[in-house]
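Throughout our pipeline, every protein is held as a single compact record rather than as scattered files. Such a record has a labelled line for the sequence and another for the backbone structure tokens. The remainder of this section carries one protein's record, kept here as part of the documentation:
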Amino acid sequence: MTKFLFKLIIACLIMFSANSVLAVTIKSSSLNPCQGETVEITVAELAEPIRPIEFLQQKYKLFLINDSTLNKSYHCLVPIPVTQKPGSYALKYNNENIGNLNVKSANFTIQKLTLPKTKDNFIMSPGEAEAIDQAKATLTDRRFFDTKFVQPVNARVSTQFGLRRIVNGKLLDDYFHSGIDYAANFNTSIKACAPGIVVLARHNFKLHGNTVCINHGQGVVSIYIHMNKIMVKEGQEVKIGQIIGTVGQSGRANGPHLHFSIYVNQIATNPKYWYEKVY
């Protein structure tokens, strides 16, 4: 986070035992996030062992950001699920309530979509779901980024993040659009949104098509699907803005476009916040 990012501070005391009280100071990038937003939690004055932050029954590992022996600080990124109902929800540390995040509605809309019968399904290739899930679950201590993310292509947005869909007249109850679709021309260059390591670069997935996944560190993974050409390899380190491939319509795609997603600790988040903020 930078000095330009508004920070709210909660101070609280956590009781670990009858004779031990630990002061914990928490800074949050937002106490009133929208559905699909990412919140950075920064914690200071912790004693060993370091425990995870808990939110919505999920645990988020804290990473060291200040190795001073006098005042160590840690942080983690907490994603707000698209499907989370608006309301106030507790943040916890060591099973104690240390504050609340007040989730607001993002007012996502519903889109009608017509697909040919051959593509009106979510059928995947053998091993496709496992490969994508494994990439989303990547968690490394190193954080590769320290700036805002950039758009992977300069093109018109055809489908916004979070949209519900009616496909061929049927509302998909358990579906929401997990990224942003860019209606770029066929073979338009695709850029890495931030520095990181390529953890997946695969061709010919039945649903996702040609796909690249990049690990940006500490639970953040970007995903680029329906590509035509892939110009990077698994294990390759990439820089922000580096060309990683081109736009296509491989997989379940009704015309050339890039579907771009950013997952935080395996939960889809709205890329627009990553273009606007430095986490």
About this structure: Helices lie at 128-136, 271-276. The first strand starts at residue 8 and ends at 17. The mean pLDDT is 87.
